Fold these 3 entries.
Entry 1:
Amino acid sequence: MKKVAITLADKPKQASHTTFEIVDDQAVIINLNAGTYISLNETGSFLWERLDGHTALADIAVDLAEAYDVDPAITRPDVLALAGQLLEEDLIALYH
């Protein structure tokens, strides 16, 4: 699989072939094309719910930092890593 670079400036969107449900603050995401699913913890779910194609990952990292009362320097690499994983698993699409 070709690795695609993702940056904090990117504005990813949940892929149209996904569906999800929040259960106990955790998102369960189903890839309808592949028939696979993943589960995200509370902070991963925070990210997932904000992937609207209009909001930059940098802004989501700031919102996450504010919500959990931590420095954005802590959330930026985590947001970027999770978004990269979601992209590799074809769960999100990038809009520049």
Entry 2:
Amino acid sequence: MPRRRQATARQMRLGTELQRLREAAGLKGREAAALLGTDSARLSQIESGVAGVSEGTVRRLTAHYSCADQELIEALVAMATDRVQGWWEEYRGSLPTPFLDIAELEHHALYRYDVEILHVPGLLQTEDYARAVFSYGVPEPPQRVLDLWVRHRMQRKAVIQGPTSIPYEAVIHEAALRIRVADRTVALAQLAHILELSEADHISVRVIPFDLDGFAGAWTAMMYAGGAVPTLDTVVRDAPHGTAFIGSQTQLGAYRTLFRKVEAASLEPNRSRDFIHGLTKEL
């Protein structure tokens, strides 16, 4: 398969998982390459995601690595053979790559969790709210770019509002619900939109109020996407150097625990809806 100019986060994750299986088997790159009948450079390209890999190659590699997790093998095969051009591809070259990678990640996710402290989660944002958030950038984006960002964000919402919606849970701090990124009208519409979406059976919204004792998790904002198997779960976090896609098993375990801690500290969904209703009356 030809070498890619730039691998997507999903393609890199496939390579990372194949590398993880190789290392768990105690094989060096040159040893695995020899078993595959290729050279170390080619194997390195596969493991970095810049070279595609066929179903047969994935099955041969996992067999050489003595991988007995059949569900994981089938999930890796699906990642390798997926040739679907998703809706996000229309933005390639126009929007930052992480925007597209997040949309692709959500498209393949079995469920989504969000924790947000200062902003309403992207999947729950109204168009006006999203526009206000994006326009606050420095330098302020040109109108054409701003329109693309907002349209892309609205299209992402199909994963929880479309015909194949996935289970979604959002834990939102009161600060995010109170901060007016625009004006009172936008704030009221945003709260009403959250309340409307939270009525769906597959959507759960929980609130962490200011007066909660013992909440020291103000740094815990995260997006958690459930993969085809738990090994392929992914956490997305904003980092100083850009968007970070986290897939190491140790870190995933820590973030699962962290999410459950934050969830346990929040109001249950019915009380959260009542809380949001109360905020609308204060505005």
Entry 3:
Amino acid sequence: MPQVEETIRQEAEEYRGDSEQPLGGYALTAATYLGAVGAGLLVVHRRRDTGPAHAVGPWDLFLMSLATHKASRMVAKDAVTSPLRALFTRYRGVSAPAELAEEVRGEGSRRALGELVSCPFCVAQWVATGYAFGLVLAPRSTRSAGAVLSAVAVSDWLQLAYARLQQAQE
């Protein structure tokens, strides 16, 4: 076993080069995601309630897409959710209207989690997966939450468009 561990360590160092890529943290994060998906699938399987009422149609996919976009930006960029990221990031200022710029800090798993929670593209996978399980396990509540998040996303875009129109008139 020590030979295998040494080989993995050497390969990781060779892959990383001079970067600070926390491969072990990434592996742990991916394993956690796969474990959560496996647990969710087990719950769904045990319920044996996966008939046509739980099928994801075009409207659900549209709502899921908007809700995933908004929820992932809220987790990764909102000032109000910065306490969730504070252990893993350092405040650097404002990056866009109602969004913060943060720098990932730490090493290993701490750094990997910092990269996850501060990246809306990375968080989106987790949000969409949770939403998909929500559609199967609690469809009404999930659709209601999705509708709220989708409305907020569209409102954000309208606010930004309005601000641009005002700037264009100045």
